[in-house]
Amino acid sequence: MMCEECGIRPANFHLVTIINGERVERNLCPTCMAKHQKQLPGIDFSNLAGILNSILSGNRDEEEQAKLDAEYEMCTCEQCGMTYAEFQKGGMLGCANCYKAFKTPLTALLQRVHGNTQHAGRVPGGVHSGTSIRMNIDRLRQKLQKAVADEEYEQAAKLRDAIRALSIQLERREGDIKVQPQARLKTERGEGNGDV
Amino acid sequence: MYEYVMAPEQDVVISSRVRLSRNYEDLPFSPKLTQEYAEEVIERTTEAVFNTENGAAFTFLRMADLEEDARSRLVEHHLISYDLLKFVNRSAAMISSAGTVTVMLNEEDHIRFQGLLPGLQLERSAEMALKLDEAVGEKYPFAFDHQWGFLAASPANTGTGMRASVILHLPALAASGQMGAVMQTIAKLGLTVRGLYGDGSEARGNLYQLSNQATLGRSEEDVIRALSAATGQVVEHERNMREQAEKKDMLQLQDGLMRSWGELMYARLMNVGEFMKRYSDIRYAASMGYLHAPLPALDALMMDVQPGSIGVRAGKLMSPRESEILRAKTLREELKKLVAE
């Protein structure tokens, strides 16, 4: 579950506040939680065990991310002038080049947010799409060989899955099947009061 | 006489929606988007979309040109996102005549393509959005990276940029007290569930939204398939609970639900909170065959009496009391028409 405030970091806190007798529940990440703690009185600690548990399990990732975040704080995208600190505050990047400028901390962030750092979906339409999937597969195969050689099997398994996903996609594209309308579930079935 | 077509699984699934986030590769993203660049986004996109095969079906609307009620009405009908209104000075939308395809401009990303259909029709909603995405992207390239996919302003949307969701009506599950368990199971599948209106586990009108969480690492097809499958399971669960409730005490169930029909048919003042409760009851009753009112019409009416939409209907600024009066009156008239047919 993502933080309901910033939408970027995973939510480790369940914040319950009672405002004018109305109960409001929100799921927040530690950073946004800290902001709220300063602002809001009357935090309900009834769920303390759950909070502690999630802090402990999420702690290590948090630490690593915090280290990277601190390291890159002053880093600036030369294209649009966005600083990494600015991104951390607003949660949005300034241009496509920001993804290159902040590549290292973003890789860690994407891994935490999506559990993955390799795109497995469509590529932009047009004549080059098939080619670029193939390029992608080639690149991943090289990485896979290296991972196997280094005995990094977890990484190798991830790469294998990514290659498989891309290969399926390539097949589909070359068969000129765009979105495969999956076995129509129970669609087209008229029922109930359809003919009123 | 109206003709109503029931969409797949419409007894439980109200609608299916797919949104795609896209940004032009050569223009700055939202935080650095000046008015000039925002205009460029609008110019490029409108040109590209109007020139597609069905381009003539789109209406272009600048948010700054609309009254507040008209904007709210678009949000209430799910034609635009609430977030589009955070950028009123620069944001715009292109909406197809049937309301099934929307292009939002200068929201958090340059473009959000949206496909929206009644019932469980995620594949077709995705197809509609992706088709338009391809047509525009062919003309003006989108920011894309081979490792990270389509680059979004927020890294949370990077990858496919696709957010697929369904709106579910779950009165029997909610009444059984099993929503907590269902939510937990769904969270384990990498999906998010939340009340459509209101916070946390409380959902107005027993309406819940189910959507995918991650956008990076899985193909569009995979995500759609997983969400469709999970939705199918929730649908079965809800149907079972409805059957059980009927088996337990049908008269009691009918009595409870049909009382809401009575309230709606005769009330003189109706606020939104109460209306959503009554709507949930009569929708439940209609799905069980206790009430002969078509579900698509009930859903359309539900959106039409939301605060912004009722304001547009009045055509003037109303006090809260005036809104309640008009809502009650509209409901009496429209519901009478529905059952008369």
In words, what does this structure look like?
The radius of gyration of chain A is 23 Å and the shape is globular. In chain A, strand 1 and strand 2 form a beta hairpin. In chain A, strands 1-2 form a two-stranded antiparallel ribbon. The two termini of chain A are 42 Å apart. Chain A is 52% helix and 7% strand. By secondary structure, chain A is mainly α. Helices cover 47% and strands 16% of the residues of chain B. Chain B has an 8-stranded antiparallel β-sheet with strand order 2-3-4-5-1-8-10-9. A two-stranded antiparallel sheet of chain B has the order 6-7. In chain B, helix 2 crosses helix 9, helix 6 crosses helix 7 and helix 7 packs antiparallel against helix 8. The termini of chain B are close together. The interface between A and B is large, with 62 and 77 residues.
List keywords for this structure.
heterodimer, A: 196 residues, mainly alpha, two-stranded antiparallel sheet, 7 helices, 2 strands, 52% helix, B: 341 residues, alpha+beta, 10 helices, 10 strands, 47% helix
Can you lay out the helices and strands and say which pair or pack?
The complex is a heterodimer of chains A (196) and B (341).
Chain A: E1 13-19, E2 22-28, H1 30-39, H2 48-72, H3 84-90, H4 98-101, H5 103-114, H6 129-149, H7 153-174
Chain B: E1 13-22, H1 35-50, E2 58-62, H2 68-76, E3 92-96, E4 101-105, E5 111-118, H3 122-139, E6 144-145, E7 149-150, E8 162-169, H4 171-176, H5 179-188, E9 191-195, E10 207-212, H6 220-266, H7 272-287, H8 295-304, H9 307-314, H10 320-340
Antiparallel strand pairs in B: 1-5, 1-8, 2-3, 3-4, 4-5, 6-7, 8-10, 9-10
Helix pairs in contact in B: 2-9, 6-7, 7-8
